[in-house]
Amino acid sequence: MKNITKWILFISSYIPLFIILIFTNIDFNKTLNSINLILSGNFKIILKNITFVDLYLWLLITICIVCLILVKCLIIQSRGFEYNKKIINIEPSNSSVLEYFVTYLLTFSSSSFSFKEIVVFWFILYIIGHLYIKNNNFYINPTLYLMFRYNIYIVETNNEKKCFVLSRLNEYEFNSYINKDINLTILSEGFNGNIYLYK
């Protein structure tokens, strides 16, 4: 279960890329016609005219929707695991998201939808995923910031060298908690108390 949670967070970090790929490759007229055919029950026509690119686009759309739902469920579930910490130092880390976005998302956004390039794309993503999980880089997630409005902070507490806190508070508001005890909510039991949510 721990690994599943980690992979959900990793895949969700690429939702902005998936959205870019969808909008740069989708045929809106064809999509609208397909929706109309679905509503009218003409599934045979859809199956007859469907292409590999169409299937892949719908797969990406499904991945985006499912990942957003699962991440939201993780956030809701996390409310049950609270820990009292004294904040010693706070360092904003949103710049890590920007570096991640430029390095990976913009690089892959030009990918075409040929079968060969799709296989290579997912193979590279699989390798990056292992590195992402091995190094516990779960705080580097543009989706958490863009779609759930969580800022990312590297926090030093009285009983841990370093942990990561996701909070909707801005830097000025969060800095007011230095040298104060606050209740941090662990994002998932699978992260050994390294990633927390606050407000």
Structural overview:
By secondary structure, this protein is an alpha+beta fold. 56% of the residues lie in helices and 17% in strands. The chain is built from 9 helices and 5 strands. The protein has helices spanning 2-12, 15-25, 28-39, 43-49, 52-77, 94-108, 115-134, 142-146, 171-175, and strands at 82-92, 151-157, 163-167, 181-186, 195-198. Strands 1-2-3-5-4 form a 5-stranded mixed β-barrel.
Tags for this entry?
199 residues; alpha+beta; 5-stranded mixed barrel; 17% strand
Brief synopsis:
This protein is an alpha+beta fold and 199 residues long. The protein contains nine helices and five strands; from the N terminus they run H-H-H-H-H-E-H-H-H-E-E-H-E-E.
Number of strands: 5
Ends distance:
25 Å
Profile the largest sheet: 5 strands, mixed, barrel
Task: Note the total helix count.
Answer: 9
Q: Low-confidence stretches at least 5 residues in length (pLDDT < 50)?
A: none
Overall structural class, as computed from helix and strand content, comes to alpha+beta
Strand content is 15-25%
Radius of gyration: 20 Å
Secondary-structure element series = HHHHHEHHHEEHEE
Q: Look at the structure and give the mean pLDDT.
A: 75
Strand order of the largest sheet: 1-2-3-5-4
The global form is elongated
